[in-house]
Amino acid sequence: MFNIYNRVTPAIVAELTGIAGAGRVIYNDSERMEAYSRDEIPGNHYRAMPEAVVFPGSSAEIAAIVKLANRELIPLTPRGAGSGLSGGAVPIYGGIVVCTDRLNKIIEFDPANMMITVESGVIANDINEYLKDSGLFYAGYPMSMETCFIGGNVAENAGGGKAVKYGVTSRYVLGLEVVLPSGEIVQLGGKLLKDVTGYNLIPLMAGSEGTLGIFTNVTLKLIPRPICQADILALFPDSETAIAAVPGLQTESGVLPTSIEFMDQSAFTEACNYINETLPLDQCGAMLLITFDGMHEDDVTRDYEQAGRFCQRAGAVEVYVADNPATSERLWKIRRSVPEAFSASTPLQSGEDIVVPPASIPAVVKACREIGSRYGVRVPCYGHAGDGNLHARVTPPPEWDEAQWDATLPAVLQDLYAIVMELGGRISGEHGIGFKRKADMAKTVPREFLTLLQSVKQALDPNNIMNPGKIFDLSTPEKG
Length: 480
Ligand SMILES: Cc1cc2nc3c(=O)[nH]c(=O)nc-3n(C[C@H](O)[C@H](O)[C@H](O)COP(=O)(O)OP(=O)(O)OC[C@H]3O[C@@H](n4cnc5c(N)ncnc54)[C@H](O)[C@@H]3O)c2cc1C
Prior knowledge:
The chain has helices at 10-20, 30-33, 59-72, 124-130, 150-156, 163-166, 202-205, 239-251, 265-275, 297-313, 325-345, 361-375, 402-422, 438-444, 447-460, and strands at 25-27, 52-54, 76-79, 96-99, 106-110, 115-119, 136-137, 173-179, 185-189, 214-221, 223-224, 228-236, 259-264, 286-294, 318-322, 350-355, 381-384, 389-394. By secondary structure, the chain is α+β, with helices and mostly antiparallel strands. It has 4 domains: 10-101, Uridine Diphospho-n-acetylenolpyruvylglucosamine Reductase, domain 2, CATH 3.30.43; 106-224, Uridine Diphospho-n-acetylenolpyruvylglucosamine Reductase, domain 3; 227-344, Alpha-Beta Plaits; 346-459, 2-Layer Sandwich (Alpha-Beta Plaits), CATH 3.30.70.2740. The strands form 4 sheets. Strands 15-12-14-13-17-18-16 form a 7-stranded antiparallel beta sheet, with helices on both faces. A hairpin with a 4-residue loop joins strand 17 (381-384) and strand 18. Helix 9 crosses helix 11. 50% of the residues are buried. The structure holds flavin-adenine dinucleotide. Residues 39-40, 77-85, 88-89, 100, 120, 142-144, 148-149, 151-153, 155-156, 158-160, 209-210, 214-215, 339-340, 430-431, 467, 470 line the site of flavin-adenine dinucleotide.
């Protein structure tokens, strides 16, 4: 695997140490490097050891590391918190993992412009903690926000629970400092709400999964912090009834929820067991967790009452209201725990992240059930149903061994992706392609789209040193 790039030698390590400082490079220490050989995909399929791990403390240090790697033809893998679910931060060609943990400062809070500039290694949740008394907030809300870094969120164009109302990460990125694969530092955008001075490259960088450069700081747009929030938990007899309510909830109920999260019975049962939570779920085969926020309590109350009535008409057997932070957090904790609960349950599973036009979401849940029974596997579903993004955890029955699972999974995914594409969807809505979905992406997107992506990559990274082997393959340079 390593023969197309040069290896990290003790001389390179000495240069890395000269750049980042003593104690900031891990080399020849497989025990400490193991943590950087993986992300949060369960199991051992998607792992690869780096040759060195480096912890730079500034854009200038990152630029020097990238220049060194480009000169020596050594692959680099940018890494945030490692909470990714597509293998993006896994160094599949070895080389150097560049960690952004030390880039953890809030650079500037600018209330007059309603913006904040932070280093890329700041934990997403810490931004809102910092802003909590300011009357402003950053609207990104991935379910991993207590661990993931804002740089990782930009690199994956993370979505999450509030995307129905507030949209995904890139909507809030106004400025981005990037170390390009050449080692040059470039500032894209800035504190401007409008700017058509040349190509808008921020949306290209957002979602580039570390393949076009390393982000070092980010300027985010802030919005007024909603004063009131309430959630309703609507319990339905089965998945079909619950998911069928989702499109109408948006088009017919006359309200704009902040979130519409779906959990089928397996998902909420796994999560409740995992965190020792008990809810009155006797008649419940699936649930919708629907959130509303706003500036006036009356508006929020009117909205959740209207949505609650809609859910009852759509077949909900019970609708509970959580109108205080403690109860709301109790419900959201269940939702946030679903991925971890599944991951802990078995290493043999495939976490899918399919996305379809929102009105087609009921068809996908039905397809998951049918495909599951066709192949004798379980396909429990949960996710951000309001924006058409469903997480399906394909899981084998307990008696299957790895060989049977490996032999069956490709056919399951092929059928699932075929339906998703037929509905006008894509194979990843927010977790990214990484190298987990690289082969499937190549099979499901138009050839000319793939060629366009490859030419962008080649223009910015002619030596293919920046996170190679992610999203798609390129031919790699000759060994020097
Ligand atoms: C329990 C759980 C819940 C999750 N919920 C959600 C959710 O609701 N929504 C969602 O979108 N995702 C979710 N995720 C996935 C994950 O948290 C996101 O993809 C997140 O954005 C990754 O951030 P990170 O800092 O951990 O990045 P990493 O995992 O470290 O890296 C992810 C990718 O970004 C690149 N990268 C990281 N930092 C930089 C940088 N500074 N510059 C350039 N490239 C960089 C890496 O090379 C890699 O390709 C969840 C994950 C878990 C484990």
